[in-house]
Every structure is written in structure tokens, then in C-alpha cells.
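Troubleshooting entry. Yesterday's outputs looked truncated, so today I'm pasting the complete records for two proteins to confirm everything comes through intact. If either block looks cut off, that's the bug. Protein one:
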Amino acid sequence: QLQASGGGLVQPGGSLRLSCEASGMTYTRYNTAWYRQAPGKQRDLVASFTYEGDTNYEDSVKGRFTISRDNAKNTVFLQMHSMTPEDTAVYYCDAYTFDGRDWRHYWGQGTLVTVSS
């Protein structure tokens, strides 16, 4: 089970850090990712962090967002800087693994981020 938190209202140019704590599972055995879904749009990948420690970012957030993982706290973070109104969305954390046949995804409940003055 994944519990996302940290969303809220932030002004343009501001920063926010999202957290996603896992229970009943260990992140070191999973790849993890953050997705976001803006109103009326599909859910898109923002950043990913493989169990081996490799990271990947969507082009529009490169240099502004950082995904990281604290194994001791079993928590994944998304640090966001220089935020713009286009970052407004519900953010979801995802832990996924290949079970030999298909990818299995475990989703957090989503946390709303609003960037507005």
C-alpha cells in the first residue's frame, strides 16, 4: 500500500516536496515512479527511479524536479522547484515490478498540486 502526501497550493516559481510511503512492501524490490494527471488530460509519467537507482524524467520537468528514495524510511520523494501553472495536477506514486508475465503496478491515492498566484 502506498500513501502519497505533500500536495497543496504553491505560487509560481515556488517549491514543493511530495512523499510516498510504502507499507507491506519494500521499495528496494520495486521500480518507482511519479505520474500526474491534469484536469481533462491523461495520466502522464513525470519521473521514475528504478530499483537499481537509475532515474528518468519527462522533458518538461528536467532540471526542476528530482525523484529520490529513502530506503530506511521506505519512502519515495519528488522534489519540485521553479513550478509553473502547467505543473498543476493530481500526482500519483507508482511502484511496479515484472512478475515474469506482465508489469504489476501499485498506486498511491493521489495528491493534488495547484500552482497559482
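Protein two, checking that the full record survives here as well:
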Amino acid sequence: QVQLVESGGGLVQPGGSLRLSCAASGSIFRRSAMGWYRQAPGKQRELVARITSGGSTNYADSVKGRFTISRNNAKNTVYLQMNSLKPEDTAVYYCNAEHVWTKKQYWGQGSQVTVSS
């Protein structure tokens, strides 16, 4: 059974920072690309950032230069450091794991991030 457990969301003022964490149970972490997606009210879920098992990263244009994704394979954890947050970053953020061979996907429960003064 694979579980992704997220933490670190909350309320922050514009210009502030938050760090999301996603801890993966099971044995898939090192064989998975990890990603962060977000879904704002009334909008489709979108990819925010992704990191491959080899450490290559890609980002949505809207977060480039502000967000950083990283992974710690020893801790089976992926992080999303979010700086210079804007109100439009407000959304539920979901952790995602995609197995490199089977392409099977797993999702976390979601973590609310609210950027507001």
C-alpha cells in the first residue's frame, strides 16, 4: 500500500514563504518521478513542479524563479519551497508520484495554501 502524506500548508501573506513536504511510504519513491499539482476553486488541476528519479526538474511558467522542488531519497520525501507567494498561488496542493516503469500514479490528500493579507 502506497501512501503520500503531505504537510506544511497554511495561510501566508503575499510575499511570504511556505514549504510543503510529502512523505512517501512503500518502496516506490526512488523509482518514481514526484510532482506537485494544485487546484484552485473553479479551475482544473495543474502541474506546478516535477522532479524525476534522477533529479531533473521542470516548473510551470507561473512559478519559475519562485518555487523550488527537491527530493531526499534517504527520507522518501519531496519538498516544494514556495517563495514570493502571490494571492493567485492560493489552491489545494497535491503531491503526486508516478512510477517510472508502470506509469501508475499515486496522490496525496491535498494541502491548502492560502495567500492573503
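Both blocks look complete. Sanity check on protein two: Residues 36 and 95 are 5 Å apart (CA to CA).
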